[in-house]
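dumping this here so i dont lose it
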């Protein structure tokens, strides 16, 4: 369709860029405002999930706080209190909780 337009207007390439330019500009804006930040967020989340280890305090997506007792490639067993152990998928971990006392 663009080539037909260009042929009808005498083949002026400036007219094609006038039509295509805004779409390219919109894609670039969407990339830097939406796609790239989401990719960075996904990368940091995957890094956090890979770095989990036994003894880490975590919060699940549902808001449950617990300590990791066992961890495998796709399953995490959390200790919620002294008696209760719950099994979750590794992807259901929202974030790791670090306190100032733990970091010292």
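and the seq i came up w/
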């Amino acid at each position: 369709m663009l080539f037909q337009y260009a042929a009808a207007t005498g083949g002026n390439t400036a007219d094609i860029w006038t039509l295509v330019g805004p779409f390219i500009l919109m894609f670039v804006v969407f990339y830097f405002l939406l796609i790239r930040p989401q990719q960075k967020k996904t990368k940091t989340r995957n890094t956090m999930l890979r770095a989990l280890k036994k003894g880490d305090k975590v919060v699940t997506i549902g808001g449950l706080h617990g300590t990791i007792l066992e961890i495998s490639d796709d399953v995490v067993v959390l200790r919620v209190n002294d008696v209760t152990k719950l099994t979750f998928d590794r992807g259901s971990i929202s974030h790791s909780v670090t306190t100032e006392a733990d970091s010292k």
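Strands lie at 57-60, 65-71, 75-79, 85-89, 93-97.
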